[in-house]
Design goal:
Blueprint: E1 4-15, E2 19-30, H1 33-53, E3 61-72, E4 78-91, H2 97-108, E5 112-120, H3 125-150, E6 154-170, E7 189-202
Antiparallel strand pairs: 1-7, 2-4, 2-5, 3-4, 6-7
Helix pairs in contact: 1-2
Length: 204
């Protein structure tokens, strides 16, 4: 292999999320499966109605969990059954997330179960491009410094490998959505991370 310098650069870029995913529903215990299922079904129907009233319905909502299991006391004697029904809802209007959460949990009442809330970017292309550019600039700056320290001249890049990227919610750039009769929610910034490994030849 010809002499060269291989470096790795990492770039990160963020943007406000444009989609929220909620997983919530209801759970209850009763003496029989039918009783537990009836109670939970009524609450989940109320949750679905509350979501629909706020424009979250149709393909944006689907069942993500429906479980039934027996319950026992400390002595192992059967006491009844517990039913859980959870739905996954996608919210495109980030400004209304707090309102939707408050309405849905109020509809479920004391049977409410909320398993998670995540914020995402629908289109990551522009943010990913920015992160990739920053990764490249970091890699080249590293290579130039190493070449200078070694007393050689940096040549053209001969190979570029991208890997180790990903997107995730991050705490910076938070914007509070605290509105009347709504749960305070922090959408934060969705961050994209790109890693590039570049090999530069040495100039003759």
């Amino acid at each position: 292999m010809k002499p060269g310098i291989t470096v790795t650069g990492i770039g990160t870029a963020g943007a406000p999320p444009d989609k929220c995913v909620l997983t919530l529903g209801a759970a209850a215990a009763a003496r029989t499966v039918a009783e537990a299922m009836s109670s939970v079904s009524q609450k989940v129907e109320a949750v679905l109605a509350a979501l629909a009233e706020r424009g979250v319905a149709g393909p944006d909502v689907r069942t993500s969990e429906l479980t039934i299991w027996p319950e026992q006391d400390r002595e192992g004697s059967p006491t009844g059954f517990r039913v859980r029904n959870i739905v996954r809802a996608e919210i495109a209007d980030i400004a209304r997330v707090g309102e939707v959460v408050a309405a849905a949990t109020a509809a479920a009442g004391d049977m409410a179960e909320m398993q998670g809330i995540t914020f995402q970017l629908i289109e990551t292309g522009p943010v990913e491009a920015k992160a990739r550019r920053l990764a490249w600039e970091t890699a080249r700056a590293k290579a130039e410094q190493l070449a200078s320290l070694a007393g050689v001249r940096l040549g053209a890049p001969v190979s570029v490998i991208e890997g180790g990227g990903g997107a995730g919610g991050t705490p910076p750039m938070m914007k509070r959505m605290a509105m009347a009769e709504a749960a305070p929610v922090e959408p934060g910034s969705t961050e994209v991370r790109v890693q590039v490994t570049v090999r530069f030849a040495l100039a003759g």
